[in-house]
Design goal:
By secondary structure, the protein is an alpha+beta fold. The protein is about 35% helix and about 20% strand. The protein has 15 helices and 14 strands. The chain has a five-stranded mixed beta sheet with strand order 8-7-9-3-10. A three-stranded antiparallel beta sheet has the order 1-12-2. A two-stranded antiparallel sheet has the order 4-11. Helix 13 runs antiparallel to helix 14. The longest helix has 17 residues. The radius of gyration is 24 Å and the shape is globular.
């Protein structure tokens, strides 16, 4: 601990971790001063769950820390191995049916923002139109990627009002018709075979049902037959590994230095490998080429440009319906700790560089 690389770190004599299997019990235990530090991940609880005496008299502190060290794509992810999801127009139609703005207002208290990149929240996220080195990289695959990659900035459909929702559903219906599906007797069917457009949203957490249920209603307005199934973790993992699903909620985390893992996420070789993270089933030579450009980038500028290019092509293939993210970490703590005046850029540094403050602990009371 006296080594120069350890100065200012590891200041606690003892750290104990408490594990709770139920979120409600965990929050009540925090209120009862059973443990000191809590990271919150539910907007409902952040908005309504912290009105208790210790908060009101400032013995408990809530603080938000920016998240700068990672990007994320969280989404409704399609299994493109299923014939009904192979057409990008079908997948885009499902994006037009998702009213994020209403979900954010009604369920998330307006805290979240819509994800618009596979590297959302980092400098690796594409934006605007491609220029410079990114454009040079994309030119090498021009004939194998959607033309919109070069002509239109990617944006998600925007809902939130009755007019916007109607317009979005109208566009979704147009896309489905162009993909070969028509409505007969209020049901969306394949115009060639008459087969109903039917699929299942597979969930592992009941918490996502409140998102999936209104989404199902919107999809049903298009004539789709949508079921929602929540299964326990082992069954979910088994079905995920064997690709026995239609649509799931999937997240891909991204570091600030992407590399070989991109093959695992989007590469053609991984698409047919059981248990890989290419759950969507992407098999696209242009994407494989761009992945290699990321992996073998020659410097930081080249890496950023190559990642922008990869991101842009992934987005314009509409493999997923992007969901939401926060961009900051919600924390609550009993105010017994000190910390440096300046925290690390990419981390809040707890507990590594914080310390026990005896004076604060006496004011707060309870455990010493």
């Amino acid at each position: 601990v006296n080594h120069p690389t350890m100065l200012g770190k590891h200041n606690f004599d003892e750290i104990r971790y408490e594990v709770f299997r139920d979120e409600t019990v965990a929050l009540e235990a925090f209120k009862a001063d059973t443990y000191d530090w809590r990271q919150e991940n539910r907007a409902l609880l952040w908005a309504t769950g912290y009105d208790f005496p210790a908060m009101r008299d400032n013995r408990v502190v809530r603080e938000e820390f920016p998240i700068r060290n990672r990007g994320v794509m969280q989404s409704f992810a399609f299994n493109t191995r299923r014939p009904r999801f192979r057409d990008w127009r079908v997948r885009l139609a499902c994006n037009f049916a998702f009213d994020f703005e209403e979900a954010n207002r009604g369920l998330f208290y307006g805290y979240y923002s819509r994800i618009s990149s596979y590297f959302h929240g980092t400098e690796l996220a594409s934006s605007g139109l491609p220029t410079g080195r990114e454009l040079e990289i994309l030119e090498t695959v021009r004939n194998r990627v959607p033309e919109e990659v070069f002509t239109r900035p990617f944006v998600n459909p925007v809902g939130g009002t009755a007019d916007a929702v109607r317009n979005n559903l109208r566009e979704a219906a147009r896309l489905l018709q162009a993909a070969g599906f028509v409505v007969r007797d209020r049901r969306l069917v394949d115009q060639r075979t008459g087969e109903p457009f039917r699929f299942e949203i597979l969930l592992v957490s009941p918490a996502f049902e409140r998102i999936a249920l209104p989404y199902r209603q919107a999809l049903e307005r298009l004539g789709m037959e949508v079921s929602i199934r929540v299964v326990e973790a082992s069954q979910y993992v088994t079905r995920l590994r064997s690709r026995d699903f239609d649509v799931i909620v999937q997240s891909w985390g991204q570091s600030l230095s992407p590399g070989n893992e991109q093959r695992e996420y989007w590469g053609s070789e991984a698409a047919d490998r059981e248990g890989s993270q290419n759950v969507v089933g992407i098999k696209d030579p242009a994407i494989d080429t761009l992945i290699e450009r990321v992996i073998f980038a020659t410097d930081r500028a080249d890496l950023v440009a190559a990642t922008h290019a990869l991101d842009r092509v992934l987005l314009w293939n509409h493999f997923v319906v992007p969901q939401w993210t926060l961009g900051r970490m919600w924390t609550a703590r009993w105010d017994r700790f000190g910390r440096p005046a300046e925290l690390p850029t990419y981390d809040e540094g707890f507990p590594e560089i914080w310390w026990w403050d005896a004076e604060k602990a006496r004011r707060v009371g309870g455990r010493t």
